[in-house]
Amino acid sequence: DAKTTQPNSMESNEEEPVHLPCNHSTISGTDYIHWYRQLPSQGPEYVIHGLTSNVNNRMASLAIAEDRKSSTLILHRATLRDAAVYYCILRDVRLTGNQFYFGTGTSLTVIP
Amino acid sequence: DTGVSQDPRHKITKRGQNVTFRCDPISEHNRLYWYRQTLGQGPEFLTYFQNEAQLEKSRLLSDRFSAERPKGSFSTLEIQRTEQGDSAMYLCASSPRDRVHEQYFGPGTRLTVT
């Protein structure tokens, strides 16, 4: 699986947008970009995924660079409940299992 | 939809003992995954089932670890002759046939080996 690089930590003020970056320069054409997050003392939670086009859902937006070598998870208005570790994961879902390889992610702190 | 459940939530055992964990996936989810997570690290993949078939096992899964999913419903993960290095959070996840990008995780079983 292609490797991803994320900052170890980020801070955001409450009610402001947050842009969480992810670099994946070795991404293959069939790798999907997934974002999961893990709140304290909980299992990871699906946030969003995409292949080439930008994606929006009720939780967040995913902006994918034209060359697909980087992506950004956008939380439009951070709340205290968004404080979590955010993982950017690449996976070719055609492969058997679709198991994810989590890195160490980005720990997001939301400041009231 | 009651979510993925895991039992027990916490387990303390002495080195050398065997332990077994149970995972109940979301009903009708045909895929089931086990992960292990240590402090400060992301979850690490252990094994994967599609229905009752165990299709993949990580190199992390030594001979002391075994997992089953009889009848394609709940799953068990057994660790024999536990070692202190087995202390971790063991997470189970399931995903439906038609939304393979979405894995739903349980709360995990925290194992402490003394």
Description:
The complex is a heterodimer of chains A (112) and B (114). Helix content of chain A is 0%, strand content 45%. Chain A is mostly beta strands and 112 residues long. A five-stranded mixed sheet of chain A has the order 1-9-8-3-4, with no helix packed on it. Chain A is globular and about 40 Å long. Chain A starts with 8 loop residues before the first strand and ends with a strand. The mean pLDDT of chain A is 92. With 114 residues, chain B is mainly β. Chain B is built from no helices and eleven strands. Chain B has strands at residues 5-7, 10-13, 19-24, 31-37, 44-50, 53-57, 65-68, 75-79, 88-95, 104-105, 109-113. In chain B, the strands form two sheets. In chain B, strands 2, 4, 5, 6, 9, 10 and 11 form a seven-stranded mixed sheet that branches. In chain B, a hairpin with a 6-residue loop joins strand 4 (31-37) and strand 5 (44-50). The relative contact order of chain B is 0.33.
Unreliable stretches covering 5 or more consecutive residues of chain A:
none
Q: Average pLDDT of chain B, to the nearest integer?
A: 94
Q: Taking all residues together, what is the mean pLDDT of chain A?
A: 92
* Oligomeric state as shown: heterodimer
End-to-end CA span of chain A = 37 Å
Q: Which key features would you list for this structure?
A:
heterodimer; A: 112 residues; mainly beta; 5-stranded mixed beta sheet; 4-stranded antiparallel beta sheet; 9 strands; B: 114 residues; 11 strands
Short description:
The complex is a heterodimer of chains A (112) and B (114). Chain A has strands at residues 9-13, 18-23, 32-38, 45-50, 55-56, 61-64, 70-75, 84-91, 106-111. Chain A has 112 residues and is an all-beta fold.
Present the secondary structure layout.
The complex is a heterodimer of chains A (112) and B (114).
Chain A (H helix, E strand, L loop, with lengths): L8 E5 L4 E6 L8 E7 L6 E6 L4 E2 L4 E4 L5 E6 L8 E8 L14 E6 L1
Parallel strand pairs in A: 1-9
Antiparallel strand pairs in A: 2-7, 3-4, 3-8, 5-6, 6-7, 8-9
Chain B lengths: L4 E3 L2 E4 L5 E6 L6 E7 L6 E7 L2 E5 L7 E4 L6 E5 L8 E8 L8 E2 L3 E5 L1
Parallel strand pairs in B: 2-11
Antiparallel strand pairs in B: 1-3, 3-8, 4-5, 4-9, 5-6, 7-8, 9-10, 9-11
